[in-house]
UniProtKB/TrEMBL annotation:
Cross-referenced SMART domains: DEXDc (SM00487), HELICc (SM00490)
EC number: 3.6.4.13
GO terms, molecular function: ATP binding; hydrolase activity; nucleic acid binding; RNA helicase activity
Domain Helicase C-terminal: 505-650
UniProt protein name: RNA helicase
Subunit structure: Found in a mRNP complex, at least composed of TDRD1, TDRD6, TDRD7 and DDX4. Interacts with RANBP9. Interacts with RANBP10. Interacts with PIWIL2 and MAEL. Interacts with BMAL1 and CLOCK. Interacts with Tex19.1 and, probably, Tex19.2. Interacts with RBM46.
Top-level division of the source organism's lineage: Eukaryota
Domain (DEAD-box RNA helicase Q): residue spans on this chain: 263-291
Record field: catalytic activity: ATP + H2O = ADP + phosphate + H(+)
Classification via Pfam families: DEAD, Helicase_C
InterPro entries named in the record: DEAD/DEAH_box_helicase_dom, Helicase_ATP-bd, Helicase_C-like, P-loop_NTPase, RNA-helicase_DEAD-box_CS, RNA_helicase_DEAD_Q_motif
């Protein structure tokens, strides 16, 4: 869309780009309405490997004692006698010893002990689950070739993987979107998403070829409004049996003069409306990150907070910000041409920022604080229409945010709070430049004049150092448990599976999990389509989410997964961070990510808020050896069984400084201001995701 168009679009009614004929094609006749391209993954294509059965399928997986003991569903004999059709076969040497045993790494002790804006505005309603519609499954692009054939070469072999900076334009925001067909990279448009290629070295030519193409089809998608009824707004899932165990996790606060933690919501002294909303949301007890972060933010301090996945970081920043806004009053008015939000929240993906927005809307319910969300893949005019109606809390993905700033639809001079959720991702090579642009935008208050808050479950040291540019010198660092550690409520299992055996194993697992919600992570968009297609062919109701799907499809896929219509969601790393979906019981890493922090985020889609979950990861020694050491560390720190074979690989690929023994090092403080940490950082990402990862981000 050209610059000249958006004004008109504000006035004109819009229909989305949705094409009924296309939908009919794409959403027909699969298992449970799922669609797949029957010609694209024909059995002949899939069944052209060696025909011998993989030894591992007979004996390896079932020898995982912990798995069998803890989750009978996974230790079914199906692993021993799966059918032989339709799979690539793997020579039988991909699992010599799959026994799980402890060698001093696991079971090392338990948890460580450790104006009066209120009610004056129009009420806004909606719900946390804005993703409506449980219609079709997924539409698929062509995936006629086995994807791994062009992916293997992209896997990283070094500890930090190969890195590539994201290429972003600075255009007008409405973008051309490619479908996944043809397996091309995911050029998604200016500013919103990275330009990538699915084949080695292809990104460059694609970037050059498409960068100047701002004339692609208009993005006209307007997301459905979130539900407006109070029940939907405050819908929530129950905290799990381990919620109270959060209290035993050791918390360390570093930096000068931190305010004391609070123990109860009452101690936070929030206004009545906020307290009501907290109660309606079902929150009765603070999580550790909330106990420490809320008073720090209320005291006006800058903060970098690291706490495990699913432990309530969103409310930890939203509640004190809202409390301040209620106390200080707000200035935005729906009648102003230029909206000047007091708070800007950025997050790396569209679905995550939408989720944060819904949380902001929930907690600000019944107040005159108005939250707005902007993200790519939606009509720019629609974004602008949202803003001009009044905007106090602006939740945005970086690309769309910079577009809107460029259009002078928001002013930055009133910004008091800048929040970077998934901050390590927001500061890496992919988004870092955009974030720097943001803080140096004309009008943006300097770091001395604003409060900057960063949250994540992982905080590589290099990223912490980069963060200093955004934060006041005396910022506080809150570490809940092990920085970068996995949530202990997720039972982690790593199994050795060769590339060619993965699909068979996946199907076996999914047949056992049945309708239990399961997220399957793969490394590339093309593979996500391929695996989703394959699962549908296997009559497993599946949908997929990745950066090549149109936004409407992404939201629909998430909606279908949330409501259980499609209990299996195949995803790239676009869904790895932040997504809070009720009842996700299993995460399967069909492909391991190239960096361990990504692993921590992925498995954190289950086991949230004190609930338990399981994660199974397929470890392919051909491509994943670089992850062995950090994986051993993450498993042992989370008191999980470490397979002997994984330890062997970890020791054999031992980097200087890796002791193997992490005993006694359950909690390592890694506020970089305190000097070099004891954490071994091999395999921890410090910059950007590798080219395969970042193709899916926006
Ligand atoms: N004090 C609380 N009491 C009950 N539920 C809570 C509390 N705090 C947060 N929750 C709920 O816990 C779930 C996880 O919270 P949230 O999404 O903020 O986690 P997170 O730490 O940001 O996770 P991630 O690292 O994956 O982004 C949400 O459903 C949220 O509503």
């Amino acid at each position: 869309m050209g610059d000249e168009d958006w004004e008109a679009e504000i006035i004109k009614p819009h229909v989305s780009s949705y094409d009924a004929a296309f939908e009919k094609d794409m959403y027909s006749s699969g298992a449970n309405g799922d669609t797949f391209n029957r010609t694209s993954a024909s059995s002949s294509e899939m069944d052209n490997g060696p025909s011998q059965r993989d030894h591992f399928m007979r004996s390896g997986f079932t020898s995982q004692r912990s798995l069998r003991n803890r989750d009978a569903g996974f230790s079914n004999s199906k692993f021993e006698d799966g059918d032989s059709s339709g799979f690539w076969k793997e020579p039988n040497n991909d699992c010599e010893d799959n026994q799980t045993w402890n060698r001093g790494f696991s079971k090392r002790g338990g948890y460580q002990d450790g104006n009066n804006p209120e009610a004056s505005g129009p009420s806004r309603r909606g719900g946390r689950d804005s993703f409506r519609g449980c219609r079709g499954g997924f539409g698929l692009g062509s995936s006629s070739n086995e994807p791994h054939q062009d992916e293997g070469s992209q896997r990283t072999s070094g500890p930090f993987g190969s890195r590539r900076s994201a290429l972003r334009g600075t255009g007008n925001g409405d973008t051309s979107q490619s479908r996944s067909g043809g397996g091309r990279g995911g050029y998604k448009g200016l500013n919103e998403e990275v330009i990538t290629g699915s084949a080695k070295n292809s990104w460059k030519s694609e970037a050059e070829g498409e960068r100047g193409d701002t004339q692609g089809p208009k993005v006209t998608y307007i997301p459905p409004p979130p539900p407006e009824d109070e029940d939907s707004i405050f819908a929530h899932y129950q905290t799990g049996i381990n919620f109270d165990k959060y209290d035993t996790i050791l918390v360390e606060v570093s930096g000068q003069d931190p305010p004391p933690a609070i123990l109860t919501f009452e101690e936070a002294n929030l206004c009545q409306t906020l307290n009501k909303n907290i109660a309606k949301a079902g929150y009765t007890k603070l999580t550790p990150v909330q106990k420490y972060s809320i008073p720090i933010i209320l005291a006006g301090r800058d903060l970098m907070a690291c706490a495990q996945t699913g432990s309530g970081k969103t409310a930890a920043f939203l509640l004190p910000i809202l409390a301040h806004m209620m106390r200080d009053g707000i200035t935005a008015s729906r009648f102003k041409e230029l909206q000047e939000p007091e708070c800007i929240i950025v997050a790396p993906t569209r679905e995550l920022i939408n989720q944060i927005y819904l949380e902001a809307r929930k907690f600000s319910f019944g107040t005159c604080v108005r939250a707005v969300v902007l993200y790519g893949g939606t009509q720019l005019g629609y974004s602008i229409r949202q803003i001009v109606q009044g905007c106090n809390i602006l939740c945005a993905t970086p690309g769309r945010l910079m577009d809107i700033i460029g259009k002078e639809k928001i002013g930055l001079s009133k910004v008091k709070y800048l929040v970077l959720d998934e901050a390590d991702r927001m500061l890496d090579m992919g988004f870092g430049p955009e974030m720097k642009k943001l803080i140096y935008c004309p009008g943006m208050p300097s770091k001395e004049q604003r409060q900057t808050l960063m949250f994540s479950a992982t905080f590589p040291e290099e990223i912490q150092r980069l963060a200093a540019e955004f934060l006041k010198l005396n910022y506080l660092f809150v570490a809940v448990g092990q920085v970068g550690g996995a949530c202990r409520d997720v039972q982690q299992t790593v199994v050795q599976v060769g590339q060619y055996s993965k699909r068979e194993k996946l199907v076996d697992i999914l047949r056992n999990t049945g309708d239990e919600r399961t997220m399957v992570f793969v490394e590339t968009k093309k593979k996500a389509d391929f695996i989703a297609t394959f699962l549908c062919q296997e009559k497993i109701s599946t949908t997929s989410i990745h950066g090549d799907r149109e936004q409407k499809e992404r939201e629909q896929a998430l909606g279908d997964f949330r409501c259980g219509k499609c209990p299996v969601l195949v995803a790239t790393s676009v869904a790895a961070r932040g997504l809070d979906i009720e009842n996700v019981q299993h995460v399967i890493n069909f492909d391991l990510p190239s960096a361990i922090d990504e692993y921590v985020h992925r498995i954190g889609r289950t086991g949230r808020c004190g609930n338990t979950g399981s994660a199974i990861s397929f470890f392919d020694p051909e491509s994943d050896n670089h992850l062995a050491q950090p994986l051993v560390k993450v498993l042992s720190d989370a008191q999980q069984d470490v397979p002997a074979w994984l330890e062997e690989i970890a020791f054999s690929t031992c980097a200087p400084g890796f002791s193997g023994s992490t005993r006694g090092n359950v909690f390592a403080s890694v506020d970089t201001r305190k000097g070099k940490s004891t954490l071994n950082t091999v395999g921890f990402s410090s910059q950007a995701p590798n080219p395969v990862d970042d193709e899916s981000w926006d």
